[in-house]
Amino acid sequence: MLLVYLFISFLAGVTVVLGRIVNSGLAGKIGTLQSTLINYITGLTLSYIVYLVSRDKPITESIGQISVPFWAYLGGLAGIVIIMCSNYITPKLSAFYVTLLVFIGQLMLGIIIDYFVLQELSLGKCLGGLLVLIGLTINLWIDKKESGSPDSSADALSRQ
């Protein structure tokens, strides 16, 4: 069963990168705000279809039984910011660097959340995040050196 979960996690990662590239292409054609709106309308429509096909309780029953805290609705706002930033950044950097930078950001925020919510600070997670960041920095430096130009690393990234 573990292999199934690992495979599903792998597919989730693949779809995130593919979705980022597709959304970025759409943003290049119709604009960032418009592509973000289409992304969310499509997501809402497909989520609703999956909900209708599933055997879950009706939405009104679920909402009536629990009280949802205000901060729980901030996920939608965060999603909009993520899609808009991704649509802006993805054409400027290679998919490899965007994926690594998003991963590093997620890892660092995860460490911060664990610290404040669980009062736990994992040395292994901190060192792992630092090693990934060092690896990315070295890779950027090597790419810049191989390009042979004195321009900034951001310009080197945009050529990827």
Task: Describe the 3D structure.
The structure is a single chain. The protein has 160 residues and is mainly α. The protein is built from 7 helices and no strands. Helix 1 runs antiparallel to helix 2 (32-53), helix 1 crosses helix 4 (74-89) and helix 5 runs antiparallel to helix 6. It is globular and about 60 Å long.
Topology (SSEs and partners):
Layout: H1 2-30, H2 32-53, H3 59-65, H4 74-89, H5 95-118, H6 123-147, H7 153-158
Helix pairs in contact: 1-2, 1-4, 2-4, 5-6
List the defining traits of the structure above:
globular, mainly alpha, 160 residues
Describe this structure in a few short sentences.
The chain is mainly α and about 160 residues long. The protein contains 7 helices and no strands.
Distance between the amino and carboxyl termini: 38 Å
Tally of separate helices? 7
Radius of gyration using CA atoms only? 20 Å
Largest sheet: none
Average pLDDT confidence is 82
**Number of DSSP E strands:** 0
Overall, the morphology is globular
Order of helices and strands: HHHHHHH
Helix content: over 70%
Low-confidence stretches: 150-160
Strand content: under 5%
- The secondary structure category is mainly alpha
